[in-house]
Amino acid sequence: MKVLSYIYMVLVVTVFCSCGAKNSAANASEPEKPQLYTDSKVEFELGELVGAISKSQLSKSFNWFRDGYGEYVVDTTTMSQVKPYLEGVQVKLFMGTWCSDSQREVPHFFKIMDAVNFHDIEIIGVDESKTTPQGTEKLYDVINVPTFIFLKDGQEINRMVEFPWDTLEKDMLAIFTTTDYKNPYAE
Questions:
Q1: Pairing of the two strands 43-46 and 51-53
Q2: Which terminal residue of the chain, N or C, has fewer Cβ atoms less than 10 Å from its own Cβ?
Q3: pTM higher than 0.90
Q4: What is the phi/psi pair of residue 139, to 5°?
Q5: CB atoms < 10 A from the CB of 123, how many?
Q6: Residue 118 contacts residue 150 (beta carbons within 8 Å)
Q7: Going residue by residue through the chain (187 aa), what tens digit of pLDDT does each one get?
Q8: For residues 150 and 169, what is the distance between their CA atoms, to the nearest angstrom?
């Protein structure tokens, strides 16, 4: 009974704080670092990272990032084929720290890119409405997260949206070596 009372209290606090976090995050110039409350089995995250985010913030703030990054095994064979194509490429990554797809794919993506020493990645956090205070998501027509946009000379090459068709590595290879790659939401 004591455990149920504790869970109920945490849920009430989470709902109350989440509503306040959305309003304050929209008005703040710098995203707030989420507060983490942990018991032995559950991590409660109050707040969202919205706007510009660093990999360091993700790593320091979220167990799901550290765990996903640590557990992922990179397909080095495929990435050795992708690496030459990354010269001059920039990646814009739109994600939600609240989003289960982002929590699954983003740590894996960073492990992959670290394996080929690629670091030209701009991370933009969206709120649960998939918006940012600056409206950056509108400039790039982001409707689902995570969205990985590959750019060269400021022009979009292609994008992966929400999940890969095959693996992140193989989808990247298809983006750079074929003209028929389409993300699951492309028309």
A1: unpaired
A2: C
A3: no
A4: -65, -30
A5: 20
A6: no
A7: 544 444 444 443 343 333 333 333 444 444 444 443 333 222 334 458 999 999 999 999 999 999 999 999 999 999 999 999 999 999 999 999 999 999 999 999 999 999 999 999 999 999 999 999 899 999 999 999 999 999 999 999 999 999 999 999 999 999 999 999 999 888 7
A8: 13
